[in-house]
Backbone:
């Protein structure tokens, strides 16, 4: 009887360790995915900012001045955006 109890306790300990390892792997995977998403977003923002500076010669403008410049043209650009660049179209 004691031998069987000892086996069950040992099995419980092994299962708890296995659960802890799997939980760690899951948390690590979630962290990796969120880290990749942040890196991707950062890269996209940097690229778009570089294009903004290139085409609007905005490299000498402050953040506030750049925002004012974009506000001036936002309505016009959004109203005249080609349909292939609008968000409601599927990406092909």
Residues:
């Amino acid at each position: 009887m004691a031998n069987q109890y000892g086996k069950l306790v040992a099995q419980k300990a092994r299962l708890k360790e296995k659960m802890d390892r799997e939980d760690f792997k899951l948390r690590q995977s979630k962290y990796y995915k969120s880290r990749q998403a942040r890196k991707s977003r950062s890269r996209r923002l940097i690229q778009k900012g570089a294009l903004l500076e290139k085409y609007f010669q905005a490299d000498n403008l402050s953040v506030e001045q750049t925002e004012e410049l974009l506000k001036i043209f936002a309505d016009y650009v959004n109203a005249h955006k080609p349909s292939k660049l609008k968000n409601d179209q599927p990406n092909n």
